């Protein structure tokens, strides 16, 4: 059935809320069974906008009220009580339609930790076959990479002098080069791999949903909002929907599956009366099931941006001037090439904050120009920018209701830098980043540090600077985490503890944030749980061939 806005009659086996990174995967995989009737519901619009598909235009959907939920977090108690924007995708493809398209699996130890803490079947050896299943890597199939999956993954060109200087400066500092950071050699410098193919964004809507939208057992609804899960006793039976003043209910014969994201799924659980009982009562919501972990365990990658002016070198900022943008857009429309075909995040690095880190716990993402967000617009200037991110923070935040009104955004506090160890790691990473930026390859570019700036010298001054400017990496996870303790919300297959017929499959179930931009791990989780929903045996465990790329 084609994608539509009108509500069809009839019941379904599975009702999936949210057509994002996980929901599109589930819709495609579950409807491989022709007997399974699936309805996928998305409050946002279809992904028809050119700004969704053109990689270089990624700031436009992020700044849009149409494509972005535009959540606000905070006040953040350890960031001078600042409030921060939190971008979450709204529309087919969800956050995979508005993200930076950087493709990172994470470190094997990330997933081995899940297994060690009681989540059987979630070691990296269990996850690797699903990472391979979902991708068609530009380099082709090999023992570590997939060659015929839905998502096309390509290597960035990285052919600007600033990209080359970033890589050579990192080498001069002593970082290794990761030949394929998604084959287990994550530590070191790399040219980025991206969900871009033929100059076009590869969202999960593009890769998974649109190719199967014709299936007669799949219904895709856009423009409908899920207000609450319908419950009969301890069983989920369907979903209450709304579009404007029109309301409706859809029944799910087998399962209701929440794939509305780390913020959306936890919010919907609370609105449905599933969560911490005292908080629900205080918010005016009838308690249907006391589940104290809903909304807790919120995690994100904290980021600080180091900025450098460049003199005597023509930067990409010149090409991105207002009068050049129509030319960039026209070239992309005609050829799917040029600057319109890149997200500009073409090089990066993973490194350790110090000898105490078991494996790389810091990330560099890099831009060959300066980008400053002000008043909903992006100001671009000459220079280059290191984004320093902490990969495995100890600090934990929360999500809570402000109101029982579904249209009121929840309270979201990430609690960045609450744990002193997080501040120490960031300060150590900052010191190393400044050293990398002083290496000889940058000298020819005439780089001058403008943030933090020469006046910021001591660790105390650097921490004060981070509290002033630190921000989100837009990688929230964990609010409905998998596990078996009293604060776990879901089991190892995404089933909600204590509620039959209700499952959560998205970033909210991740127990710990991985060493990765989280889109790839979330898609992997959806692929893996889709097999469990269908009653299929898990794919055979596989181990990485670390010597595969050795000359």
TrEMBL record:
It comes from the Bacteria. Keywords: FAD, Flavoprotein, Oxidoreductase. GO terms for biological process: glycine betaine biosynthetic process from choline. PANTHER family: CHOLINE DEHYDROGENASE, MITOCHONDRIAL (PTHR11552:SF147), GLUCOSE-METHANOL-CHOLINE GMC OXIDOREDUCTASE (PTHR11552). It comes from Tabrizicola oligotrophica. GO terms for cellular component: membrane. This is Choline dehydrogenase. Belongs to the GMC oxidoreductase family. It is an enzyme of class 1 (oxidoreductase). Its EC number is 1.1.99.1. NCBIfam families: PRK02106.1. Residues 89-112 form the Glucose-methanol-choline oxidoreductase N-terminal domain. Its cofactor is FAD. SUPFAM superfamilies: FAD-linked reductases, C-terminal domain (SSF54373), FAD/NAD(P)-binding domain (SSF51905). One of its GO terms (molecular function) is choline dehydrogenase activity. Signal peptide: none annotated. FAD binds at residues 99-102, 507.
């Amino acid at each position: 059935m084609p994608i539509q806005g009108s509500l069809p009659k009839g019941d379904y086996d599975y009702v999936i809320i949210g057509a994002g990174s996980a929901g599109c995967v589930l819709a495609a995989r579950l409807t491989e069974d022709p007997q399974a009737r699936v309805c996928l519901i998305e409050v946002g619009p279809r992904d028809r906008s050119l700004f969704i598909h053109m990689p270089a235009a990624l700031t436009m959907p992020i700044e849009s009220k149409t494509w972005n939920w535009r959540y606000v977090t905070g006040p953040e108690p350890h960031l001078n009580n600042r409030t921060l924007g939190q971008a979450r995708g709204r529309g087919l493809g969800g956050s995979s339609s508005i993200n930076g398209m950087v493709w990172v699996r994470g470190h094997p130890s990330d997933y081995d930790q899940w297994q060690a803490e009681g989540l059987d079947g979630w070691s990296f050896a269990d996850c690797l076959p699903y990472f391979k299943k979902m991708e068609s890597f530009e380099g082709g199939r090999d023992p570590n990479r997939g060659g015929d999956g839905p998502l096309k993954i390509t290597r960035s060109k990285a052919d600007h002098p600033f990209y080359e200087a970033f890589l050579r400066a990192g080498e001069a500092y002593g970082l290794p080069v990761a030949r394929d950071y998604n084959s287990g050699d994550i530590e070191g410098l790399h040219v980025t791999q991206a969900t871009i193919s033929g100059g076009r964004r590869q969202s999960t809507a593009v890769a998974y949903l649109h190719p199967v939208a014709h299936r007669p057992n799949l219904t895709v609804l856009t423009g409908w909002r899920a207000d609450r899960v319908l419950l009969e006793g301890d069983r989920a039976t369907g979903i209450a929907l709304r579009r404007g003043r029109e309301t409706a209910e859809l029944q799910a014969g087998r399962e209701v599956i929440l794939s509305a994201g780390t913020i959306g799924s936890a919010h919907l659980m609370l609105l449905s009366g599933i969560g911490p009982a005292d908080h629900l009562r205080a918010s005016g919501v009838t308690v249907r099931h006391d589940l104290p972990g809903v909304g807790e365990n919120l995690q994100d990658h904290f980021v600080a941006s180091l900025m450098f002016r460049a003199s005597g070198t023509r930067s990409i900022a010149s090409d991105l001037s207002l009068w050049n943008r129509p030319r960039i857009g026209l070239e992309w429309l005609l050829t799917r090439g040029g600057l319109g075909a890149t997200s500009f995040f073409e090089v990066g690095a993973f490194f350790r904050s110090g000898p105490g880190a078991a494996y790389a716990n810091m990330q560099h993402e890099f831009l060959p120009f300066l980008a400053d967000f002000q008043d909903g617009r992006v100001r671009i200037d000459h220079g280059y920018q290191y984004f320093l991110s902490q990969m495995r923070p100890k600090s934990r935040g929360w999500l809570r209701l402000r109101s029982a009104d579904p249209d009121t955004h929840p309270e979201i506090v990430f609690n960045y830098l609450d744990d002193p160890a997080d501040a120490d790691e960031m300060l150590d990473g900052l010191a190393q980043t400044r050293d990398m930026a002083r290496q000889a390859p940058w000298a020819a570019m005439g780089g001058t540090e403008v943030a933090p700036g020469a006046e910021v010298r001591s660790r105390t001054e650097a921490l004060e600077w981070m509290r002033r400017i630190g921000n989100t990496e837009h990688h929230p996870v964990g609010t409905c985490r998998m596990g078996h303790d009293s604060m776990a919300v879901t089991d190892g297959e995404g089933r909600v503890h204590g509620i039959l017929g209700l499952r959560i499959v998205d970033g909210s179930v991740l127990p710990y944030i991985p060493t990765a931009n989280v889109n790839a791990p979330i898609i992997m989780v959806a692929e893996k749980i889709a097999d469990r929903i269908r009653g299929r045996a898990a794919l055979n465990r596989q181990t990485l061939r670390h010597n595969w790329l050795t000359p």
